[in-house]
Amino acid sequence: PSVPRHANRLINEKSPYLLQHAYNPVDWYPWGQEAFDKAKKENKLIFLSVGYSTCHWCHVMEEESFKNKEIGEIMNKSFVCIKVDREERPDVDKVYMTFVQATSGGGGWPMSVWMTPDLKPFVGGTYFPPEDRIHRVGFRTVLLRIAEQWKENKDALLENSQKILEALLHRSEIHVQGQESPPASKEVMARCFQQLSSSYDEDYGGFSQSPKFPTPVNLNFLFTYWALHRTTPEGARALQMALHTLKMMAHGGIHDHIGQGFHRYSTDQHWHVPHFEKMLYDQGQLAATYSRAFQISGDEFFANVAKDILLYVSRDLSDQAGGFYSAEDADSYPTTSSREKREGAFCVWAAEEIRALLPDPVEGATEGTTVGDVFMYHYGVKETGNVSPMKDPHQELKGKNVLIVRCSPELTASRFGLEPGRLDVLLQEGRQRLATARAQRPRPHLDNKMLAAWNGLMISGFALAGAALAEQEYVSRAAQAAAFLQRHLFDPTNGRLLRSCYQGKDNTVEQSAVPIQGFLEDYVFVIQALFDLYEASLEQSWLEWALQLQHTQDKLFWDPKGFAYFSSEAGDPSLLLRLKDDQDGAEPTANSVAVTNLLRAASYSGHTEWVEKAGQILTAYSERLQKIPITLPEMARATAVFHHTLKQVVICGDPQGEDTKEMLRCVHSVFSPNKVLMLADGDSAGFLYRQLPFLASLEKKDGKATAYLCSNFACSLPVTSPQELRGMLCP
Question: What distance in Å separates the CA atoms of residue 653 and residue 682, rounded to the nearest whole number?
Answer without folding.
Answer: 7
